[in-house]
Fold this sequence. Notes:
Elements: H1 16-44, H2 53-75, H3 82-87, H4 89-108
Amino acid sequence: MSEDSDFEPVSVTLPERYWIVVLGLVENAVQDKVGPRLEELRRLGVKPEDLTSEEKALLTGVLTARAQIVDTLIGRGVIKEEARERLGLDNFYKQIEEANQQANKKRKN
């Protein structure tokens, strides 16, 4: 993987039912690994810029993938629109913005 292609989209064609399976697996990763790690980092006061690029990619990549899958499945009518409020890309970006604002407030104090 080159730095130039890091954020280039890659399409994967799967039947909708398999995307539900993938979404479940990604959700398990969020609940079992990513969520606890983010909580630990917050508790320790670790700033995002202190993380390695690999750890940033791992943590945000799983969350971004989940949000994109959710939005796509909503768009296809596979899952309900209500999921967008909690798991969609807009909510993900909103959470990032809120976390950045909180981190900036802490730095100023």
